[in-house]
Amino acid sequence: MAKDMEIAWLFDFYGDMLTEKQRQVVELYYEEDLSLAEIAENQSITRQGVRDSLKRAEAQMREMEERLRLAARFREVRDGFESICQAAQEIRELNLRTGRSREIDERAGRIIGLAEDLRER
User: Which terminus of the chain, N or C, has less C-beta within 10 A?
Assistant: First the structure.
């Protein structure tokens, strides 16, 4: 069974909505990188039981994402944020090359500063 790293990403958003057993199995498989057999041994269940629990958890998280789109929205916001940061830096550099308006430099610097503050949170 090949590991789908998208599930590890979805787990960050929807892991708390799973049952305790499902959470443990997903965490051990995706975050601790244990095999199905290792998890089965640790949890005292069959390998098939681990696989079934994992598949149910994966299906639930995919369904939640399909309905709520939290992970997709997060990516969109993150990508938009990075584009804003890049644009502010480009404005600042262009300003340096073409005339050096203090006002433009200050405003671009303010955008960059706010972005750095948000990144730290």
Answer: C
